[in-house]
Design brief:
Length: 226
Amino acid sequence: MRTGKIMVLAAAAILSASLLAGCGSSNEDKETKTEDTAKKDKTAENDNNKKKEEAKVIEPKKKTEDVKVSDKSDNSGSQETAGGEENSNQDKTAGQEQTYSQEQSEESNESGTQENTDESSENQDAYTDEEGHYDPSGGRETYETAGYVLDVNGNTMRIDEENIGGRTYGGEGEDRAVEYNIGMAIVDCPVIIKSGLSVEVEYYVEDGVNYAVHIYSDGDEKEPIG
């Protein structure tokens, strides 16, 4: 019976030792797991911190680039707007100047037309007879003559009134030529008045100038005689 107690006590001691050993092993495992978990947590924390630092370094740079791009865009928009406004102002100014020039030209033309109309009306009144016919004499006393046309220069005609026929020698009549202003004369001739024609002239005198009123010729040029 004593032997049995001893065996029981021995078994109890063995069981207790086993339990103690198991507890120690479990505690070691727990400590190991705790250390591993702490290392993993620390590693993860370091990674997160590193990412945050990288993000902090990159984000400001990106923000700065965005600001520069935005500034460039704003400046470009401002320049385009300013350029558009300047071109618009230039177009308006050019349009106003052109309109003003056209108005001035129209006013000048109207003024000139009015002056010409008035002058023409006055001339028509001054050189129109009672029946409404054109009369270059303007009611003045007129005279008649005939001659050989020596030459015509502009509105001035020179004639030889002594010999109305062909020339008997070169330069005949030059020393006795009579001048007439033919600018307002009525011309009755199949050709233009020129040297070599015999003409009949109705005229009036004013301020020492002979003004032809009517010129008649058959248009036949006179050949030199002899």
